[in-house]
Amino acid sequence: MSCVTTEPDTLDFGYPRHPEMWMDDGNLVLIADNRVTFRVHRSVVTRKSTVFNDMFSFPQPPDAPQSPGCVVIHLPDSPEDLFYFLDAIYDARKYCFSMEKKPTWPAVKALLLLGEKYDAEDLLEEAMLCLRRHYPKDIEEWDKLRKDYGSFIIGENDVLPIEIANLSRLLHLPEFHLSALYDCCRLPTGTLAHSALRGEASEQRARLDEDDVAACLAARKGLTDVLAANVEDLFEVTPCDIYDEFFCPTPHRCVPATQDVQYHHEKAQTDAIVADAGCSALEPLDARIASTFGAACERCVGFYQKRYAESRQELRNRLAKYIAVPPY
Q: What is the pTM assigned to this prediction?
């Protein structure tokens, strides 16, 4: 990071100016990766970033130019990341995300990466909040998010978990690293072991860290085994085995139906469910459960769906037991 002072009328560095982040009355020029220039206000940037504030907190030398000018700083950051970072500083409301206004991964990545690097606490916290919403710890929230919205952060299905895992590793964020690796476990083996293409028109590929690839490949069997155990557990009991006074509107139909499934269950049925679900041990099997216990009433089917949700919540709480996040 280098810093010089120049007069306003000499602001031509041979790089294109960013059209959305060039303030004519700005007094701070940032050059991103020797590719794009940004002209902003020093007072605005330093108010949000302690790193930039500290940079200008030292007394200027006696021979420093006294005439109005611009401080020029060269930064190694990509122009895309720096744009999101500066845009969030100037227009914070745009970056208060919600289910109705979901963020894109490039925006979250930039706020996470540069928020950490330049100690912009508000921006970093918003990025962390996005990751918490994308990977909720409560299994009911997990199910609702995936059922109603698919995901919180907008990104390419194959690329997104890889890039979240890579950035979480870089910034030492084990909570999100672990959740992203769970999603990576569900990727096709070729994508997991090699890379995912970033968009049809791009030649860039997202590659998962080699240690994380090994962790995912090793975790797949454990996730499949716990999925099989949780499915098998569904066939061990009926609602009456758990509750002395379980309310069922049609016991004459449901008791025989649930007992029939319990008594005539074969391992082949569990194997078929596991084969369909693969490593998706945290995903709900509501449709499959409803089909299996189809002769029972909605309340009894809900009993099995709730029971399976409880086993998935336990798995969510103990996910690190099955996916060993490699040391940083």
A: 0.87
